[in-house]
Design brief:
It is built from 18 helices and 18 strands. By secondary structure, the chain is of the alpha/beta class. The radius of gyration is 25 Å and the shape is globular.
Length: 483
């Protein structure tokens, strides 16, 4: 959908000390295909050190206002301040740990104009703070009666006319302030339009589960009793109904809305096409164990058959060791830049130059203590670049997905080779043929970093076999590419 940038959209981002995903959230606004926006960041009484981080980050950013609360007034007050200081005809809300997909604003302003509506909410995919898939929510049209039973609107997915926001405002409550907001809107406007397009990445953060649940139950009671003016018995029934609806919603988000997923695999790597962006990943014990970390760009992932575990999903298994991948690929002339991304190595660089007949540029990445660190790295690449990653799974696959997300619209071809390239260049001794034929490569690799690799092997194999026993892999279908 293409639409002119005639309508100013005010993007309101409340902030209170939590900087972990803040830059990613703000950058997701700047990466929008629709560029007629202003960003209003409301600092809700954060510490001086947090404020300084924001100010340094925003120093070179335009179209952005930073408004300060002298004390912590709560997220409702922060959003209301944003609304009061907005200039746009439409308001979009974005929490500081969520992220928009690049077409979010363009797609939704197009829907609002096409169907002459004042409010729309979209679908969203949920991950935890380490990038593991937690669910997919599909938006639907919602009336006041439907909303009373279940709050199925992600605030960071919505686009609302300023007129509605000024008339409604957010009430001061620690959670479910957005639920009350939507209930008030549907009382006046009858329907909030839902759209199936996935427009937002929602992050489920670690919290104290017990205190969080108690607060949610308490605030649910307040919603129905105080704001919906229900009597005690009806309020208890409504809270019960809301809780049951939430359980069914979680089942749908985790299972019904996402599966079956298609595993695209390739047997003959030399036939791979460079027409569209892709991430080439080994289908082995590690990738199957951590496959929920790969869902964000799953349609762009091409698996090559590496580990013995592939046999459980793919008929006529033909193994291609990671050390052979570069030898089998013929890259087209349009690819000028080749990058080695990860751990710097002169042996690997020289091997890449010789094998691919291209100059190789090294991009060193820091040591990642956790997957959360991988998600937050921001690397930019030129169009039509080949990127080779040489760090361990699942960090290399997460880095590949982060790179695609940060280089929206560019054609990038990413090879997750891990230790395979170290073996290919002679940096690490290759697996003896007899072990390779017996699919015992993992045993050979235990010679070095034995304690670390043993621990990782036990963890990975336990996850894999638990998934097998639970029939988890039955949720996937497979398709061979480039036959």
């Amino acid at each position: 959908m293409s639409i002119s940038n005639d309508y100013l959209i005010s993007v309101i981002i409340p902030f209170y000390n939590d900087y972990d995903f803040f830059e990613k959230a703000v950058n997701s606004v700047y990466n929008q295909t629709y560029q007629n926006f202003e960003i209003i960041i409301v600092n809700d009484g954060s510490s001086q050190s947090s404020v300084e981080k924001i100010q340094i980050f925003l120093k070179k950013k335009d179209k952005c206002k930073l408004i300060h609360h002298s004390s912590n007034l709560g997220v409702s007050a922060a959003r209301n301040t944003g609304i009061q200081n907005s200039l746009g005809e439409y308001i979009a809300f974005l929490d500081s740990d969520d992220e928009w997909l690049p077409n979010k604003l363009e797609h939704q302003i197009g829907l609002i104009k096409k169907f002459n509506i004042e409010c729309v909410h979209g679908s969203y995919i949920s991950y935890n703070e380490y990038g593991k898939f937690k669910g997919l929510s599909i938006a639907k049209n919602l009336s006041y009666t439907q909303l009373l039973k279940s709050c199925d609107i992600g605030l960071s997915t919505a686009l609302v006319s300023k007129k509605i926001c000024k008339e409604t405002q957010f009430v001061n409550i620690s959670t479910k302030e957005d639920y009350i907001f939507w209930l008030m809107i549907t009382k006046k406007n009858k329907i909030i339009s839902g759209d199936s397009e996935i427009v937002t990445i929602y992050r489920v953060r670690k919290k104290s589960l017990s205190s969080s649940l108690i607060t949610k139950f308490k605030n649910a009671y307040i919603v129905y009793n105080k704001y919906e003016r229900q009597n005690f018995f009806k309020t208890i029934f409504s809270v019960f109904t809301l809780s049951v609806s939430w359980l069914f919603k979680q089942k749908a988000m985790i299972r019904d809305n996402i599966y079956p997923l298609k595993i695209n695999y390739i047997k003959k790597i030399e036939k791979i096409s460079f027409n569209n962006s892709f991430i080439l990943v080994a289908l082995n014990l590690a990738s199957l164990a951590y496959i929920k970390f790969l869902y964000h760009h799953f349609s762009k992932i091409i698996f090559w058959l590496d580990g013995f575990s592939s046999k459980f999903l793919i008929d006529n298994f033909v193994k291609t060791p990671g050390r052979d991948v570069l030898n089998k690929i013929t890259i087209p002339n349009k690819i000028k830049n080749v990058y080695l991304c990860g751990n710097p190595s002169s042996l690997q660089i020289n091997y890449i130059k010789k094998t691919l007949n291209r100059k190789c540029i090294t991009i060193e990445v820091p040591f990642f203590d956790s997957l959360k660190d991988v998600i937050n790295i921001n690397l930019k690449f030129d169009e039509e670049s080949l990127i080779i990653i040489n760090i361990s799974s699942p960090k290399q696959e997460m880095l590949a997905q982060t790179i695609l997300g940060n280089n929206n619209g560019k054609k990038l071809y990413i090879l997750c080779l891990g230790g395979g390239i170290a073996m290919a260049c002679g940096e690490e001794k290759p697996v003896p043929n007899f072990l390779d034929k017996l699919n015992l490569e993992w045993l050979w690799r235990l010679r070095t970093n034995t304690l670390f690799r043993t621990k990782r092997l036990l963890e990975t194999s336990t996850i894999f076999y638990l998934k097998r026993i639970s029939l988890f892999y039955k949720k996937f279908i497979t398709e061979e590419l480039f036959k």
